[in-house]
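Q: Convert this sequence to structure tokens.
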Amino acid sequence: MTKLFRRLLRDERGANVIEFALVLPVLTVFIYGIFVVGKLFEANAGMQHALGEAARYATIYPTPTDAQLTARMSAKKFGTNTMGGTLSALSISTSGTTKTLSLTYSQPTDFLLFDGPNVSITRSKKVYLAS
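A:
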């Protein structure tokens, strides 16, 4: 009986399968987490692009209205409508010869096995208008 028991203790066949079964859930969560963070970076880039396009529009055309700038930002944004994220605020404030364009995006994060925090991204650009 002891010979059989020692032989079973030394036998390492199947150890790789057990190690893989232990590591697979952690690896899956990490890969999915990288995907979620990548979508946040995409939303950030889309917001920056929309703000840049609206700022360019405001500097090229002499008297842009707030409605035109809002339409320009809405048309040029990308990456903010995926994975349950919402573009919660799109605002324009005027102060003398400048306009401040602002976008706020919030995204709940989900890492498959547990819920992450809600991430909120706010970006703004100041545009100097021709007088």
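The helical segments are 2-10, 15-60, 66-76.
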